Each structure stands twice: as structure tokens, then as C-alpha cells.
Amino acid sequence: MHWESWAAFWSMGGKGFYVWGSYGVTLALIVLELVWLFRQRRRTAARLRRWLRASGRIDTGEAQ
After folding, report:
1. What is the CA 11 to chain-centroid distance, rounded?
2. What total number of domains does the chain contain?
């Protein structure tokens, strides 16, 4: 497509608010999903380490 100006590009024929708003919401949700994913991964890894330590399957470096 050919736009006459940047203003025409951003307004997208009067539909710019919907188009750019949709992109913004989608980007925000993707960022929130990534943040949630990394936090869950860290929590799961910590839980697994605690479980392995409690079951004696990880050497904690302490002499027995």
C-alpha cells in the first residue's frame, strides 16, 4: 500500500485506533505471558531443588 504521509499511515483510513490498539493489546499480553512463564519456571525449578534436597538425591556438600 502507498500512504501519502505518516499521519495517513497511523490513521489507517480512520481505523488506526482499532488497528494500533489491537497491536498494543497483543504485545502487552505477549509480554505478560513471557513474564508469567519465566516466573513459573523459576518457581518450578526451586520447588524441584527443594524436593530433591529433601529426598537426599542432591548432594548439599554437608558431610554425613
Report:
1. 29
2. 1
